[in-house]
Write a structure and sequence with these properties.
seven-stranded antiparallel β-sheet, binds alpha-L-arabinofuranose, alpha-L-arabinofuranosidase activity, 11 helices, 2 domains, about 25% helix, hydrolase, Alpha-L-AF_C, EC 3.2.1.55
Length: about 500
């Protein structure tokens, strides 16, 4: 049976915020050290930034980059990470049982963003695990105040004359998680988040603040956590965060392929909770969603790895090597974000380099693209504009976790120049899926490109030995005639169909 939907310019979801294509650099494993930063590497510049990585980061098309954690931030002392490198202390990083050398710090992070280009925007997290209001304010003053105070002058003395201009701030990280250093109840966190937000706004009313939501929809405290935190912070913050990671459990690949069903319901449930609190407060304000950690992550494999560590520097941690199947799920997660672009206005792919990342590196050696690199770079490139409302009529398949699920998962984005890109995933593992799209009133007349990520071997991956084993290829036979797009989606595939 053919999967179908209709696109109409009159029916839209909302404008895509470029921040939807954010990412995340945490002091974890080799994300920073030998990932982004490797003095002495053949491609490293004078600041130790790997140019091969920088080129791939630009090609990936990331915008906001969240930093420095993650769980790491709950033990973070920002002042350790500034000033002369030789004076910076080595510290225990409790989150990842590693030793943090602080050779890369706040100033290096800002310099890295500036090297990426104007599209890269800082998104800084403050430590609300082991620290509180005072330290958040000190960091804000150091980073953003122009000059003439002790901390802003210290920044200038450290060589950064220009303020960093950090606008987006995360008020802690995953404070609902028992694993978090300084874990809090919703009431405790709501109070400290509110007071930190109030004080940060006294320095600068223009900051954009993200309150911690749940670390996953399956958390026992989910929804009650958001409601409690927002009751305290509704007028003081702009966003609530969501985090979600997916992996196949017990070999259940069919449910894994439907992971976006969970992601979309998570988003819709958080929107409902935000709006419920807003209604109770009789507020006109809407809280938006910052999906600031999302990805495929073989989490069940990593837990034992971390507890076995004996405080190494930059160990190989969370270095998942992604297959074609993983990339198709990953693409579907991107589709889920785009389908909710009206309320999800920030999202960060966790993470950027080496750690559950689209970009991998070898110390002293090359950098390469994982399979997940391609859906992200294509979505960032062609997923800018107005998201069109897509309601699919699709054949279905049965999944253990989500019951009957559509084989087709899709969205479409109309750019300012009128061109339209359809992003579509065929979740079916064995059969091709014919697709028919009615394009009433869009004014597009030709297929520019139909790019596919799929492979006869769904387990194919890119590795150090074979870094270009998997790349997207062009699909045959896709046509647009009489206002109808007709295509065939290969089994287990991520598709980008560009129309003009
Ligand atoms: O991205 C890896 C970890 O996942 C982050 O440190 C934490 O916030 C989440 O649990």
């Amino acid at each position: 049976r053919t999967a179908r939907f209709t696109l109409d310019p009159a029916f839209t979801v909302g404008e895509v915020n470029p921040r939807l294509f954010g990412s995340f650099v945490e002091h974890l494993g080799r994300c920073v050290y030998t990932g982004v930063f490797e003095p002495g590497h053949p491609t490293a510049d004078a600041d130790g930034i790997r140019q091969d990585v920088l080129d791939l980061v630009r090609e990936l098309g990331v915008t906001a980059i969240r930093y420095p954690g993650g769980n790491f931030v709950s033990g973070y002392k920002w002042e350790d990470s500034v000033g002369p490198v030789e004076d910076r202390p080595r510290r225990l990083d409790l989150a990842w049982r590693s030793t943090e050398t602080n050779r890369f710090g706040l100033s290096e992070y800002i310099a890295f963003l500036r090297k990426i280009g104007p599209q890269a925007e800082p998104m800084m997290a403050v430590n609300l695990g082991t620290r509180g209001v005072a330290e958040a304010l000190e960091l804000q003053e150091y980073a953003n105040h122009p000059a003439g105070t002790a901390l802003s002058d210290l920044r200038v003395e450290h060589g950064d004359k220009d303020p960093f201009g950090i606008r987006m701030w995360c008020l802690g990280n995953e404070m609902d998680g028992p694993w978090q250093t300084g874990h809090k109840t919703a009431e405790e966190y709501g109070r400290i988040a509110a007071e930190t937000a109030r004080a940060m706004r006294q320095i600068d009313p223009g900051v954009e603040l993200v309150a911690c939501g749940s670390s996953g929809q399956s958390m026992e405290t989910f929804a009650e956590w958001e409601a409690t935190v927002l009751k305290e912070t509704y007028d003081l913050v702009d966003y609530i965060s969501l985090h979600a990671y997916y992996e196949p459990l017990d070999g259940d690949v069919d449910s894994f392929l439907a992971s976006a069903v969970d992601m979309e319901s998570f988003i819709e449930n958080v929107v409902a909770t935000c709006d419920h609190v807003g209604a109770r407060l009789k507020s006109k304000k809407k809280i938006n969603l910052s999906f600031d950690e999302w990805n495929v992550w073989y989490l069940s494999r990593t837990e034992a790895q971390v507890s076995a560590l004996d405080w190494p520097e930059a160990p190989r941690l969370l270095e998942d090597n992604y297959s074609v199947t993983d990339a198709v799920v990953f693409g579907s997660l991107l589709i889920a974000l785009l389908r909710h672009a009206d309320r999800v206005t920030v999202a960060c792919l966790a993470q950027l380099v080496n750690v559950i990342a689209p970009i991998m590196t070898e110390p002293g050696g090359p950098a390469w693209r994982q399979t997940t690199f391609f859906p992200f770079s294509q979505a960032s490139r062609y997923g800018r504009g107005e998201v069109l409302d897509v309601r699919v009529d699709s054949p279905t398949y049965e999944t253990r976790k989500y019951g009957e699920t559509d084989l087709l998962h899709a969205t479409a984005v109309r750019a300012d120049d009128g061109s339209v890109t359809v992003f579509a995933v065929n979740r079916g593992r064995t059969a091709s899926l014919p697709l028919d799209v009615a394009l009433g009133g869009l004014g597009v007349t030709s297929v520019v490109e139909h790019s596919v990520l799929s492979d006869a071997d769904p387990d194919a991956r890119n590795t150090l030995a074979e870094p270009e084993r998997v790349t997207p290829h062009a699909a045959e036979g896709t046509t647009l005639a009489d206002g109808r797009l007709s295509a065939v989606l290969e089994p287990l595939s991520w598709n980008v169909i560009r129309l003009a």
